[in-house]
Amino acid sequence: MENSSMFIISVYSENQVGLLSSISNIFSRRGINIESLTVFPSEFPGIHHFTFRAITTERAAQQVVGFIEKKVEVVRAFCFPDNATSAAEHGILQDYLKNRNQ
Amino acid sequence: MLKRLTGAEILLESLIAEGVDTVFGYPGGQIITVYDKLYGYTDRLRHILVRHEQGAIHAAQGYARATGRPGVVIVTSGPGATNVITGVADAMVDSTPVVVIAGQVGNAMLGTDAFQETDVVGMTGPIDKWTFQIRRPEEVAPAVAKAFHIASTGRPGPVVLDFTRDAQVGIGLFDEYQKCTHIRSYALPAPADEKAIEAAAELIDNAERPFVVFGQGIVLSHAEEQLKAFLKKGGIPAASTMLGLSALPSDFPYYVGMAGMHGNIASNLMTQQCDVLIAVGMRFSDRVTGKPNTYAPKAKIIHIDVDRTEIGKIIPVEVGILGDAAEVLERLTERIRFSFHDEWASLARRYDRVETEKVSEPETAPAEGPIHMGEVVARVAELSGREAIIVTDVGQNQLMGARYSRFAHSRSFISSGGLGTMGFGLPAAIGAKTGAPEREVCLFVGDGGIQMTLQELGTIMQEGTPVKIVLLNNNWLGNVRQWQELFYGERYSQTHLLNPDYSLIAKAYGIRYRCVEDRAELEDALREMLSSKEAYFLDAHVCEMGMVYPMVPGGRRLDEILLNKEEWYRDGK
Q: Which value does ipTM take for this structure?
């Protein structure tokens, strides 16, 4: 069995009613508790930023991220061990939006 | 030209602009405006009135699977919407493009427990590809455009539009319809990674016993010819998942049969022996893999799929290639060397001989006793010249239909795979025939499943849909009974059915009917059925204790195969 530890799952999405509920379903369907949750407008116009903290395995966390990204309104999702910083996200998202924002 | 139209009219105009000519549906209080407007569109939109909303969505699924175009469903709010839920979940797991338009109460009533109000967005979100609530008439056309784009691109799936009354009756401006081609947060499949293709080609070139397992992804990506070219150049034998059936013609030289629990011995044993397994457009369902950590133990695995979450989800892979099957196979074919693996590929014939002798021959050509299920399916395959679209329900009828049908064309096998929805068959056959009227559509269904959506015989009656229904009638919920016989000490708990007189039921719906109990009559009855220009209900009374073999019992390795109740087959023994 893989060890469980705290992960931050960080999600950037369009502003869409009901999206939080369908994202949190992806956790609950796998029996993963959400330890904390914040939602706020990101530094990118029109894009919301969710951060979830959850105790799970690396494999499950990656899978959750994959399924979250499959949601049509989700722009990108990332997962980090709780101790990492999110500076990397900013750069990746900036590039991504530059390419897709035409 | 700018027109002032109600949201309901904008919906119908948008559907027509998307190329829709047929919708499946059922009216009701909160969709009545759409039905009112539909009255003036009957020359351009054919509406098939079903008898239950579940019938509408399964029919739309059958239509989509037969044609490749999204099936469209229109239902009312509340129970209308909840009745399509099973079909939405079914279409999701089987990657079927379906657009559901469900009525909803007025905006001011949302969240008040109004009559026939239910939280459609909340309920369908976890089981569909996209859900959207349309609250204003000007949102209608863009929502429909997005719905069709999302349903039919990437890995296809169902979308649900929750269409509030305000959006239906309100007036909006409608100009030229704009198809959706770009959604910022939804990326279409990109060309596959060159490095991954290179790595895969190298593995394939160095393989001694390469093996392909393909799924419905081949059909969805129109990759049939690319798959053939790939197999020919690499000299690689290939097995199909149940949903991949008919993507290759049954007599294609490299084709070794169906994989999985009730698949062909050759495909399962070769999976366990191959040294490189190339999985294309399939998702390693537990019905295909058996116990996952014993699957293909000698193989390095290459997985080609358009859905990122499928790669590595069940089976760890050596090389994952994210991309569209047709594009990836074409590029892989260019890269690999011409190869022959004749000795390896000929193993299939050896295993086939065992299967024919031990299982298929006794099932399809028994000398005496009651009619067997496999026998009926095999005769249909012969008499229809492999031309028919075969639709099945779920259970033994499905497994027999999958095992003994033979195909010449793609999109010829329609069945509920991932969700295993009993009651799918009859409405799906109606939808398939509606979408492909030029083709023969033959349904195999059990006496359990047909009664789950039996009311759709009324749809056949009213629409005159000439589907051929073959009821494999054994008075049991046969597949569960088979498990009870094999694994639950023959304790037949709640699996015996007292059936109605189907001749009276068929008569009530004005459908031609014939009952067959004797083998001597079977061929004549099937000929009569297949030559009938109208719907036909063939009630085949089959062996009550019929079993589907071979079988890899759940949670076992693929090389632990039951040939019959006593006999196991483990690689040549």
A: 0.86
Instruction: Pick A21's closest partner by Cβ from B122, B187, B307.
Output: B122
Quote the minimal CA–CA distance from A95 to chain B in Å.
13
Cβ–Cβ gap B125/A21 under 8 Å = yes
Do B194-346 and B3-174 fall under one CATH topology?
yes
All structural domains of chain A with their residue ranges: 4-100
Sheet holding A34-41, edge to edge: A34-41, A47-57, A4-14, A74-81
Looking at chain B, which residue has its C-alpha nearest residue A102? B184
Phi, psi for B193 (deg, rounded to 5): -65, 125
What sign for the dihedral angle of Cα B401, B404, B405, B411? positive
Tell me if residue B304 falls in helix, strand or coil: strand
- Interchain CB distance below 8 Å, A75 and B184: yes
Record: contact B125-A18, CB cut-off 8 A:
yes
**What residues does each domain of chain B span?**
3-174, 194-346, 370-541
Say whether B309 and A66 touch across the interface (CB within 8 A): yes
Contact B121 A29 (CB under 8 A): no
Residue B312 to residue B308: CA distance in whole angstroms: 9
Under CATH, which number does the domain B370-541 receive? 3.40.50.970
CA distance B348 to chain A (A): 36
Q: Which of B125, B184, B187 sits opposite A22 (nearest CB)?
A: B125
Query: Distance from A62 to chain B by nearest Cα, in Å?
Result: 9
Of B125, B186, B308, the CB nearest to A25: B125
Say which CATH architecture domain B3-174 belongs to. 3-Layer(aba) Sandwich (3.40)
DSSP secondary structure letters along B262-281: TS-HHHHHHHHH-SEEEEES
Cα(B225)–Cα(B209) distance, integer angstroms? 23
Nearest to B308 among A22, A66, A75 (CB): A66
Residues from chain B contacting residue A96 (CB–CB below 8 Å): none
**Is B121 in Cβ contact with A17 (below 8 Å)?**
yes
Assess contact for B120 and B84: CB atoms under 8 A: no
Tell me the CATH class for A4-100: alpha beta
Nearest partner of B72 among B139, B127, B19, B36, judged by Cα? B19
Q: What is the pLDDT along chain B (573 residues), one digit of tens a residue?
A: 799 999 999 999 999 999 999 999 999 999 999 999 999 999 999 999 999 999 999 999 999 999 999 999 999 999 999 999 999 999 999 999 999 999 999 999 999 999 999 999 999 999 999 999 999 999 999 999 999 999 999 999 999 999 999 999 999 999 999 999 999 999 999 999 999 999 999 999 999 999 999 999 999 999 999 999 999 999 999 999 999 999 999 999 999 999 999 999 999 999 999 999 999 999 999 999 999 999 999 999 999 999 999 999 999 999 999 999 999 999 999 999 999 999 999 999 999 999 999 999 999 999 999 999 999 999 999 999 999 999 999 999 999 999 999 999 999 999 999 999 999 999 999 999 999 999 999 999 999 999 999 999 999 999 999 999 999 999 999 999 999 999 999 999 999 999 999 999 999 999 999 999 999 999 999 999 999 999 999 999 999 999 999 999 998 999 999 999 989 998 766
> Exposed, middle or buried, B138 (CB in 10 Å: 0-12/13-18/19+)?
middle
Select the residue of B122, B133, B185 nearest A73 (Cβ to Cβ).
Answer: B185
**CATH number of the domain at B194-346, please?**
3.40.50.1220
Residues of B in contact with A99 (CB under 8 A): none
Token output for B324: 């569209």
Say yes or no for a CB contact (<8 Å) between B126 and A13.
no
Q: B131 to chain A nearest CA, in Å?
A: 9
